[in-house]
Every structure is written in C-alpha cells, then in structure tokens.
Amino acid sequence: MSMLRAIFSHPSGRIGGTIVVIYVVVAMLGMFGITPHNPLQQYRIDRLHAPSMVYWMGTDLFGRDVASRLMKGVGQSFLVGVSAVALASIAGTVLGLTAAWFGKAWDGIVMRVMDVLLAFPAILLALLIIAVAGPGTWTSVAAIAIVYMPIFTRVVRGPALSIKSREFVDAARTFGSSRRYILTHHLLLNLVAPLTVQVTLALAWSLLTEAGLSFLGLGTQPPSSSLGLMLADSRNLMETAPWLLIFPAITIMISILGFNLLGDALRDILDPKTRSRTA
Amino acid sequence: MTSLLSVSNLRVGFGRDPARNEIVKGVSFDLAAGETLAIVGESGSGKSVTALSINRLVDFGGGRIIGGSIKLTRADESILDITLAKEPMLEKIRGSEIGMIFQEPMTSLNPVLSIGTQIEESFRLHRGLTGRQAIAAAKDALDRVRIPDAARRLKYAPNQLSGGMLQRVMIATALACNPRLLIADEPTTALDVTVQAQIMALLGELKRETGMAMIFITHDIGLVAGIADKVMVMQAGQAVEQGALGEVLDRPQHPYTQHLLSAVPHFESGRAARTDFTRKEKETPALDVEGLVVRFKVKGGFFSRAQGSVHAVENVSFKLMPGETLAIVGESGSGKSTTARAILGLVRPTRGSFATHMGSIADATDPSVQMVFQNPYASLNPRLRVDSILAEPVIAGGGRVTAETREKMKALLKRVGLPEDSLDRYPHQFSGGQRQRLCIARALMLNPSVVVLDEAVSALDVSVQAKVLELLVDLQKEFGLAYLFVSHDMAVVERIAHRIAVLYAGQIVEIGDAASILSNPQHSYTKRLISAVPSIDRRNQRFEIDTRQVPSLVRPPGYEPPEAQWREFGPDHRARAEA
User: Fold this and answer.
1) Are A178 and B365 inside 8 Å of each other by CB?
2) CATH entry, A2-40+51-278, from 3.20.20.70, 3.40.50.720, 1.10.3720.10, 3.30.200.20
3) Taking residues B510-516, what's their average pLDDT?
4) pLDDT tier at B360, thresholds 50, 70, 90
5) For residue B373, which residues of chain A lie inside 8 Å, CB to CB?
6) Which residue of A59, A122, A126, B272 has the fewest CB atoms within a 10 Å radius of its CB?
7) What SS3 string covers B303-338?
8) Per-residue pLDDT for A186 more than 50?
C-alpha cells in the first residue's frame, strides 16, 4: 500500500500510473470481448464511417468498429507483451543469478551468448527469429522474450555479484544454508527493486516491438486485431479515413509513455539514493 | 607567529533552508604554521563539516556557509577568505595548499583505475611530472607510507587492497604535493595500531620537515594526546571547549569533555585482564586446531601460471577450552580473519585439521561453531524480517520453524537485550549496537559451543562497545561458550580475553595467558604492537619511523617455512624464538 502511495505522490508516477491502470482495464475488457461492438462484425453499410456516437472511433474498410478492434488489439498487445516480459525476466534472472553464483566457465558462456544477442538491434533479431520459426502470436512472444532476456541477465548479474560477497551471504554459509535458500532469500530478495523497474521498462519496449512486428505482418495474423496490424491496414487510407491511423497510433504512443513514466518513477522510489528527493 | 588559518564564527547549514538547518553553529579557531589542531567529538557533532568547510568541499555535500569567515594565508603571503572564493581559485588551493585525507578509504578511490594511475594524477596535475617520472614518484610515495611490494601494487585496482592499504594510498596521494595544511578526517580509524603509529610518525616527520599545519579530526582521545598541540572539543555543532593539549586533557572544564575522557577504554598493560577462568589441560577442548595452513595461489605472466602462493596462514595450532576466550590479535594481513574464516569453512584450508567435541570438522558446517561478523550493517540481509533471520540457521540445519523455535527466538532476543516486538521488524529499524546483538542471538540459535567473533565490536561506538562486551562475558558464563575473539584493538582484547595468540605474517609468534602477554611481551612484534597502542598517558609521544618492511607473504611454489622454535616464559606463555 505504501508503494502505491509512493507512486502516486511522485509526479511522473502519478501520470504513468494512471495511464497504465487505464491501459490494463482497456486490455482486460478487450481480451474478454467486452467491447461496444463485435470487433469482427462487418457493418457493410457503414464502411469507412467517420467517428460518431455509434462508432466512437469510426469504422474501417470492411465496416468493422475501430474502437472495438482497438480494444481487442490492446488486449492482444498486452497479452503478448506481458507473456514475453514474463518469459524474458524469468529466464534472464535465472541465467544472471546462476552466472553470478557459479562464475567461471558458466558465467563466461552465459554472458558471451547474451553479448551476441545484444549485438543485434532488437527488431532485427526478432525478425530473424520469426523468419526461422514462422509468424504467429506465440512465435512473436518467444522472439520478444529472447530479444529482451539479455538485459535482464545483465541487470541481475551485476548486483548479484556484489550481494554474493556481502557478509550476510558469508553468514548464511557458516550456518550451512543450502544454495537454493541463499539464492532465493539472500540474492533474489535483494534484487526485487531493480527487477521491478526493469520489468516496467521492458513492458514498454515489448509493446513497441510487438506493434512493429505486427505492422510488418509477422506478429498477430488477421483477422485478429492488433495495434500494429491496424496501423499497417490504414496506410493506404490515410487521407480518406485518418481516424484509422490516428487512434491506434495515439494509443501506442500514450501506453509506451505511461509505462516509461511509471518505470522512471519506480526507479526513483526504489533507489535509496534518490529516495529523499521524492519523499 | 603568523597564523596560517583563521576561522571566526563559522556557521554552516544544510538543505533547502540552511539557516534553519544549522550543523555548525559559530566555530572559531586559529592555526599557526606547523601547528596541529585536533577536533574531537562524536558522530554528528559537526567536526567533519567544520573541516570540509575549510576547503569548501562542503558545497558538494549540499552544505552552505551562512556566516563567518575562513582566512587562509597563502604561500605568497596574500590572505584569502575562503568563504568568498570562487570555484577556479578553490581548485588551485585544494591539493597544493590544503591537502585532505578522508575517513572512508574504500569510497575515496576510483574503483576502476589502478592506484598507480590515481597517485600519478596528483603528480601530473600539481608538479607537471609525466611518464616514467610520474611512475617513479608514485612508487616513492607508496614506499613512504610503507606499502610492501610498492612497484607491483601500483598496478592494483582498489578492490585488491585492504582498507588499511587503501588509506595509506590516500595519504600518499594527499602528501604528494607537500600541502601547507593537511586536513585529516579520522585518517587512522581503519588502520591497525602499528600502522596507525607509523602513519602518525610519518605525519609528524613531514610536519617537521615542511612546516605543514594539520587539522586532525578524531574520536580517539588517546591519539589526540600523541599528536596535537591544541584540542577543540565539539558537541552538537558548537566548540564546547578549546585550548592547549595539556589544559584540555588534565583540567577539562566542560562536563562533556569530562564525559568523553572517562568513556574511553584505557589500555592498562594487562592489569585489567580477566581472571575468572582457570585452564585445565586434561579437559577435551571445545575447539582444537592443529597445523592450519591456508595458501592462495598467485598467478601471473602470459599463460597465468602459478608463480607462487600467498602464505596467509602458516601452521597455526591452538586449543580452545570450553568457557575460555582466546583472542587472536594482529594487524591486517596477519591472517587472523583468514584463520577464523577457515575454521568456519568460508576459506578452504590447504592443510590442517579442526576438531570440536562433536568430532573433526570435515566441511565446516558444524552447528557447534558459529560466527559473528565485524559489520552489523552488512551481515544482516536488509530484506528479511528478524524472525526469518533468526530462523535461517534452524532451516539450514534441516529443522523446521515451530512454535518452540519462536519461543526460543523470543527468549534469546530478550537475553541479548532487545525489545519483545523485534521479531516483526527489519534490520534497518535497529541501531548498530542492536544489530550486533541480533547477530549474537542468531549465532546462539543452534546452541553452539564455540563462537567466532571476527572484530565483533570494532564497528561500534565506544560506549556501545563496552555494553556489547559486557553482554558477551555474561553469555559466556551462562552458556559456557568458548570464544575465538579476533581483534586488532588491544584495549578491547584486554577486557575479554583469557588467553592471547599474536599473529604476525600468518604465524603465531606468541601465545599464552592474557595478563602475562600484555604485561610482559617477549616477541619483538608483540612489543611493537603493545607500544603502539595510543593512550592519554603517552603525551606527545614521538613515534619512531620504522623502515622495516612488512615481509611479503608471497613465496615461490613448493616453499615450506622452517620449523618454529619456541621458548617458554612461564606456565602458560611462550614465544617464537627470533633469528
């Protein structure tokens, strides 16, 4: 509870937090199909209808309600983004922790592989993975997870190395604590703060990457909707039906802004060095 | 004599509204060239802030000088008011006219640059030396502060050196330009007594050679007696008493000065040693260490071949009886902590055996030997609640946390003097002394017979130190614990030890009854160690600079030291024969 209060008393946390809450609500509604219209229903008579009381954000070329498709798309992006970040953070944390703990050859192998992955630009690497595995929702989840995993590995390994040499870890060894207990209770518990910040920031990136992949036709496949896909479809109609482009574009922009602001706020709140400034 | 520095009515504040958050409240003093002023006070008294104002480093810490003046007479006789000086002028003064040594050697050096580079920087900036000349000057500077293997150490990064070594590097850097005023902020707090004596001797010699004045900030009144000409006692931002050394120490006027003088633990050359234990040789020892050897391989060269090894602990043997305290004393690098860590299995011994009454320790997770670490802030996981912290040894031993365990936790917390509601709190809610009590309680969770205390009271304030020592003695009597007390502080050792083992360069050089060793040391190193202990009785003592190098512990592969020859000096007191 004090965490929530801290976020909402932080200036960018307040804005970011609000955006993220709204985003998650919209995503949930979209995911469970609670939308103003059926997102797949084609209202043939109302093709390319401008925004109105019935169609809040207008309709597309096939007469499908843009607002409903947008909500569905947000749900889809969110699902992909969250799954990818969950995978990336779990795999990255495990690799980072074990690399720091065991050191030597294992550390070398893990970190060099991560270096190779980081050497490619994120979207290019994701494209490569999808080109090999074929397009689809779950391949894009896997691709995004692999792309962002090295960042988590690095974020975990650094602090884990320094915590490993702290006296309370030595103390635990003198009691004969098991390796698993030390890794979970002493190392991981002290990494919660940097991981929280990283997860929030990674969500913003992965939403953007998902939109990019869908835009290129490699992520979510039609007729399912996704923000990137909606942008791609609206390209040729930009002048006749600008609402097709504007609403998804603004949604992407604001959501990423929201997650970034929240991430920055969390970094300030969780970092003891800057805590006094926000208090 | 013209005054070098004249501070009058200095007021320093912090934060957004410095006037309301005043830390230093009107301090005045004068300092002549070549004179040493000691500023004494407890933490939070404003003594460091006063010193930092003199070279205006306080600005970078968020402080503002809100009143008064600091007049410095520069080398060209001009007088500069530092409170009004601009930053470019201050940069010229810092280093070349006012040198500074900080309290925390670990954080005062850049961790990513070699220490050689950092010392050379000072020579490059202020003396214009380059290349080989700078390297040679840096090596000389390290030699001056008695760092063995100086040429090789230049290439070391700060994390490869001990805290004591790093402070010597800091002193070498500060002295590089022979400043006219040296501000030393608790410079020897992190050092061993013999090294401390060396540094004091070095500072004294440089003072005489160059006419350098010094402001020496410390909490150790014993040290003040050794070096200062004038003393200023600070409390809550005010100078409560100042005057000549003899005046302040012999006829303290202010009650706070009187309190400070009486709170210091005096070293009494063995007269205060404990007499509540008689050793029975026939008993089974609580801990029997036989021929402990710890060596670390040194790698070097293109193919990282082993070039030899550091003989950190060499053939250490002792028997620790139930209910007895054996103090292991020695300076940093003597192997005293390595010995303790080897017994706990944190360091793999090269040779040697340990036995407790449970049998010999194979992998050192014997629950009958527990450890209390030096730093109570680092040895408790900040994210775990006290009940989880105390449960850990039980869980580690394969046990379960039952209602009985919780009862035991409560009883132990009460026994070590912590409030009942402590179980639901986090470590940061406790003070340093309370945390150390927590660590003691944690060590006692498994009913050990031996507790290894690695500098367990060194990080605590003097008055807290006394109380924790009292607790340790009480617990020892109550549970019949055997203590292995690792320390560098002779005054503390005198209060708790029954027997003492003096470690030098990884070897025991003298072992035996505490009173006998402290009152009548036989080995030359023990004599040096004991004579270096500062005390108020040793007024303006002239420390002799000792040019003897600490022997390098690096030996070629396959080296075995010669067998030790021992000489007896009484029923329980023997020392290694010297060549």
Assistant:
1) no
2) 1.10.3720.10
3) 90
4) low
5) 167, 170-171
6) B272
7) CCEEEEEEEEEEEEEEEECCCCEEEEECCCCCCHHH
8) yes
